[in-house]
Amino acid sequence: MSKNAKNRKIVIILIAMFASICLFIIHFNIVAGKNIKIGWKNHSINNEISASYAFYTGKEYRTLRFEEGDTITFEFCSKAEVGKISLCLLDSRGKIVKVFPDCSKGRELVVINNTDYYTILVEGLTTKGYYKISWERFGEKLTSY
Question: Are 48 and 120 contacting, i.e. CB atoms less than 8 angstroms apart?
Answer without folding.
Answer: no
